[in-house]
Write a structure and sequence with these properties.
Layout lengths: L5 H23 L1 H11 L4 H30 L4 H22 L5 H24 L1 H4 L5 H31 L7 H18 L2 H6 L4 E2 L6 H14 L5 H30 L4 H29 L1 H19 L5 H29 L5 H14 L3 H13 L2 H6 L2 H12 L14 E2 L3
Antiparallel strand pairs: 1-2
Length: about 425
């Protein structure tokens, strides 16, 4: 890590900063806090679950619509960092508000969550696009992987502190209610996100851009229309995005359905939290390893390795019948989940025209966001038809096979051929 430049470190540390949000607010603590708030207000469990699903879907739809539009505007000089600051600040501020809003105001909590989700996802569009500005093509694999690795490690620290506070309060070791301890956990996450965003704000600047035009908003819509209209000109790039849509759907589904799968095997919630924590720790060094091997054998090769590992995971899941099997499955996931995502990000960064990186990372965000639709439905349908959750997970093999076949069809000469002459700030 010490050999990274200041811009590379600043960029990578944003993964360290915001990954706690995913673990604490999206996955572990806030969903339970919201459910308790809704129950306290007399909302049925099924109804509050539905509202939670609607909120997540609305936030996803909103950022998917905005990402390519704002991304295209952000390609003009000076806009990329401005938009990053706006969205990250929005996410941090409203995450802090989640800890301040009275716990019985479940609807207000849900509104704040939608805004935090919008801020988190929106900032990530510009953050990912900054990869082309902070490093060279030769170092993208390593830097992208370091970011994911730092994210895995960084997310566990506030998570452990938060879980510790909640458990101590539940055992009456510290004089706090579960509600207050959950609010403290959410506040810690917001502060962690804000503090470790500072290196990104201090050291990262937009180097590749388009020069200003009289009406950047109008010009951005015209550029977006032109890109979609001339999509055949970007065949390697969009062929990769199509492959990414399928295999990343499988990756996200394995992550999102893991706790449900573990519960069906009879694994306790405490054990599941321990498995989640260990998976984060193990994933960090393997993500760095993927980055090093990507530089040696190519990102495309390492993505294919990740896909093959996930195909094996899905096949192995079919035979799972014990907690030990689940632990082994989780460790297998840890070997590849960060690596396949890191290699996908750096591979895509090499494909896009650098001065249009925000526009294309907007599309990258759309494909990643909507790649959470087919997998859960596939798992649910297969599990319902066969009466076995194992069969549901096994069905994800289809997504990885389709993604792998499409990835193999991406031409070998794809990297760098999309890059066009660009303006570059040499100051």
């Amino acid at each position: 890590m010490s050999k990274m430049t200041a811009p590379e470190r600043g960029w990578a540390f944003y993964d360290w900063a915001n990954s706690a949000y995913t673990l604490v607010v999206v996955t572990a603590i806030f969903p339970l806090y919201f459910k308790a708030s809704a129950t306290q207000a007399g909302i049925a469990a099924s109804t509050s679950t539905a509202y939670w699903g609607y909120a997540n879907s609305f936030a996803t739809l909103l950022i998917s619509i905005l990402a390519p539009i704002l991304g295209t505007i952000a390609d003009f000089k000076g806009f990329k960092k401005r938009f990053f600051i706006i969205f990250s600040s929005l996410g941090i501020l409203f995450t802090l508000l989640l800890a301040i809003v009275p716990s019985n105001q479940w609807m207000l909590l849900l509104v704040c969550f939608v805004i935090t989700s919008l801020g988190f996802s929106g900032a990530n569009v510009f953050y990912d696009a900054f990869l082309v500005d902070v490093t060279t093509e030769e170092r993208m694999d390593r830097i992208s992987s370091n970011g994911f690795a730092l994210g895995y490690i960084g997310s566990t620290i506030p998570f452990i502190i938060s879980i510790g506070i909640i458990l101590l309060s539940q055992k009456n070791i510290i004089p706090l209610s579960t509600t207050v301890s959950s609010q403290i956990a959410i506040a810690i996450t917001a502060l962690w996100w804000g503090i470790f965003t500072i290196p990104m704000l201090k050291n990262v600047e937009q180097r590749y851009y388009k020069n200003h035009v009289p009406n950047p908003v109008s010009a951005s819509f015209k550029q977006l229309y032109s890109t979609v209209k001339n999509i055949k000109s970007y065949r390697p790039l969009f062929l990769f995005l199509l492959a990414y849509f399928f295999y990343i759907d499988g990756v996200h589904t394995v992550i999102n359905m893991s706790t449900v799968f573990g519960s069906d095997l009879g694994i306790t919630s405490t054990t599941l939290l321990i498995v989640l924590f260990v998976t984060q720790i193990v994933a960090a060094p393997f993500t760095v390893l993927f980055g090093k091997l990507g530089g040696k054998y190519s990102e495309k090769t390492m993505i294919m390795v990740g896909i093959m590992v996930y195909i094996f995971i899905c096949c192995y899941a079919y035979f799972l019948d014990s907690a030990l099997d689940f632990w082994m499955l989780a460790m297998l996931v840890a070997t590849s989940q960060g690596g396949i995502q890191a290699m996908s990000r750096s591979y895509f960064a090499k494909l896009v025209p650098k001065e249009s990186s925000n526009e294309f990372f907007g599309f990258y965000s759309i494909f990643g966001k909507f790649a959470a639709i087919i997998g859960p439905v596939l798992v649910g349908a297969a599990a319902q038809i066969t009466g076995s959750t194992n069969s549901g997970v096994f069905s994800l093999v289809i997504l990885f096979i389709i993604g792998g076949v499409l990835l193999l069809r991406v031409p070998k000469q794809e990297v760098s051929v999309m890059t066009q002459p660009s303006s570059r700030d040499m100051d």
